[in-house]
Request: fold
Amino acid sequence: MSAVIEPGHTEAAHDHAHGPARGLSRWLLTTNHKDIGTLYLWFSFCMFLLGGSMAMVIRAELFQPGLQIVEPAFFNQMTTMHGLVMVFGAVMPAFVGLANWMIPLMIGAPDMALPRMNNFSFWLLPAAFGLLVSTLFTAGGGPNFGWTFYAPLSTTYAPESVTYFIFAIHLMGISSIMGAINVVATVLNLRAPGMTLMKMPLFCWTWLITAFLLIAVMPVLAGVVTMMLMDIHFGTSFFNAAGGGDPVLFQHVFWFFGHPEVYIMILPAFGAVSSIIPTFSRKPLFGYTSMVYATASIAFLSFIVWAHHMFVVGVPLVGELFFMYATMLIAVPTGVKVFNWVSTMWQGSLTFETPMLFAVAFVILFTIGGFSGLMLAIAPADFQYHDTYFVVAHFHYVLVPGAIFGIFASAYYWLPKWTGHMYDETLGRLHFWLSFVGMNVAFFPMHFVGLAGMPRRIPDYNLQFADFNMVSSIGAFTFGATQLLFLFIVIKCIRGGRPAPAKPWDGAHGLEWTVPSPAPYHTFSTPPELPVEERQP
Amino acid sequence: MASHEHYYVPAQSKWPIVATLGLLITVYGLGTWFNDLKAAREASHGPLIFFVGALFIAYMLFGWFGAVIREGRAGLYSPQMDRSFRWGMTWFIFSEVMFFAAFFGALFYIRMWSGPWLGGEGSKGVAHMLWPNFQYTWPLLHTPDPKLFPPPKAVIDPWHLPLLNTVLLVTSSFTVTFAHHALKRGDRRKLKAWLGATVLLGACFLALQVTEYVEAYHELGLTLGSGIYGATFFMLTGFHGAHVTIGALMLGIMLVRIQRGHFDAHQHFGFEAASWYWHFVDVVWVCLFVFVYVL
Reply:
């Protein structure tokens, strides 16, 4: 720390007047929000394929009753790692990638507020997942206690790799918190003059609220894994009743993180869909203000519903009632959102390009996931559904056609802006229909086997579930294989295709469409004038 | 928003990669170390790997903060950049608040619900059948299974060292504020005196905390392994102590920077950030004093 000012040695000497650096250093050392967004998106897609392969192992084992392909111990590692990789490696980084690419473009900012920290946030993720996935190859095997890692399964009875798992979670948490701080600082501080909060695209709003949730709950996750670490290695008894602790304490702290976490995975998708549906309906979003308030209400409620994951562990009656009713309240703001999306489409001049197909499927199928969530929210009914495939069906309906379709819709919507080329519309639609059919064939039957009593996370099952499981597996294989088509479409779009104009969608609004396609390496180095249409409320 | 024109976007930087490598090596070393300790394996590489990682992190901290300090002093940061730093620090402190909230939440849950249930009270008192002889009291001077978790003979008396520590930390919150006012008046002599006093108070606090831990371990039998009281006690006070250490280091570095002539009456966010952090640490202590020691 020299007190002498050495302008020649500051990293500022270069400032940001030129294009990307060459070679690997461009990606390793970058501070550019578009580069970092690209890194996040590719990392997320790699993790999506990795987590997807694990799902394929699970579905292959469940194709028929009996144990055929993998050992039960390995099956447990697959269910655990599939969940962890998809939640923390695929869905969350994809949305951070979209935020990095789009928020500065949407609000007219030169970059993210803290660009070096932005790169740090990204690179922690490959480090964390390298550490986590490598445990699969160690002697005792990888984490095998489910992605919710309930104690004492994850403490007293855990394989040795749990220690690395804990530290990997710490790294992911640090990454998420820094990424979220960057989003908050960018949205609050870097908006172009005239871009008031209530004029921001809804994607910025939902991400602002998501970032708040992340900063609030990722430290709680860090706290709970730290308690695990102490119980495992330093003799504490947080989750051990023999010392006066309580295993249920783990579940409370975990789900205090875990429930907001599910909104972290869906709110950015709400925002993206709220841009896409108006574009292809050629109408402004219906009820913008109510969308903002509904998102904030969902975020608030997400903090007071966590024990609905724990109805069967022995929560006092008053608690069961409170958490049941509070959970049901979430249906109100969510209903507002669905109503607004439908009303936006009402009497619009609809066209169904690939982003719109994914967005419409999002609205319909996410709503199905919401309804099964309401069923699960009813405490006495949940006693029957708990830990069955009905739960698996529920959260895959909100995560696959919810979060992931939201990501696909966003990717197709903004690919022309990112690459400067139009993607292949025919292949895009094929990708949609195969995903749509595959996903429903995979997950819809899970409702039935779940209601009939098939438990989750078990490699074998009763013969009566055989037909539905085979159907599920066929759907899952279809859905999985289809994602290679998506990879092909993206690569094809990067390498060439019809040149995209600055605004490839005639119904689109927003600052991101005022810059050329592909977006130049640096945009809005000085803040833009808002287009006339954006100045009206 | 006239300050919009020149928002500083740094060019490429190696520090994020160095930081990532440092953290990865550190946690890999720690994990290996802990696992080898638990399995009683000799000749563990863990400590060495951890040490290498820690060196990386130290190098990164010096380099990265050094770069930021140079840029700030070169006048590259606009008022808008300043606001980004302020938002960043604010939300970082909020994340720290939530980290402590997890441990406070665990403490409240044990004391309000699961502890009494284990002792046979309330609607879930059926848990009592696990250890029928267990009686719940707080502080927990009897554990359900004393063989696994030998209970403490007594717990720390709040009205001796902890009370003194409370006085020390609360005083230090005032002294750091006096230092801030001196800085804003441009009175460098008083600034150094008050800031030096703050760091000194922090160091005294830590020394007393160490004394208290030694007493707990050697005389009271209050350890991490002495049941849930020891677990919550050491986790809350221990993480707080770690944060006091970080805060005192931050303030100490600010003192060094002030000695070298950094900061003026208007541009001193580094100092303010450290003092915010110090106030946060202070507030956590007050909560600790009330809920861990006294009540």
Remarks:
- The helical segments of chain B are 15-38, 46-73, 79-118, 161-185, 188-220, 228-259, 269-294.
- The longest helix of chain B spans residues 79-118.
- Chain B touches chain A through 94 residues (CB under 8 Å).
